[in-house]
Amino acid sequence: MPTWLDDAARVLGGGAGLGAGLGSAFFALKWVFEYVGGRMDRRAAALDDGTQRLMDRLEARIDELTKRVTTVERELADCQTKHAESEAKAARLEAMLLATRPGLKRAFPPEDCIPKDMAVLAAKMDGGSE
Asked: Domains in the chain: how many in total?
């Protein structure tokens, strides 16, 4: 006849088997999650490294373009200064030309000068003199 010790031994053996099975399942699941998590960590680390390299390259490119823009802006300012100087010089020369134009017209009237020059040229082409 089974006694309570037999029942206790059976319950204790079943509990130990159940505990061992559940413990093994727990550690197996834990290993699976750590394995997958570790792979995800490595993938994330590789992605972080790639992102950092990309950011470094972009920062270097931005620095290069900033220097280039600074150079272009300086050259543009120089060009604008030279252009303003050229416009001022052209305005002064035009004013001088307008100021001397009446004197030039009196000294060399176009109506008298052009036909006479052409007549001289025509005479020279014919072999004659004025």
From this structure: 1
Residue 111 is assigned to a structural domain of this protein = no
> Nearest 10 degrees: CA dihedral of 95, 101, 103, 109?
180
Nearest CA-CA partner of 102 in 93, 110, 92: 110
DSSP-derived 3-state class of residue 127: coil
Structural domain of 92:
9-100
Model pTM above 0.90: no
CA distance 79 to 127: 55
Tens-digit pLDDT string for the chain (130 aa): 568 777 777 778 888 888 888 888 998 898 888 887 777 777 778 888 889 999 999 999 999 999 999 999 999 999 999 999 999 998 888 877 777 766 666 666 555 555 566 666 666 666 655 4
CA atoms within 13 A on the CB side of 41: 6
| Burial 76-98, CB ≥16 within 10 A → b, else e | eeeeeeeeeeeeeeeeeeeeeee
Q: Is residue 118 part of a domain?
A: no
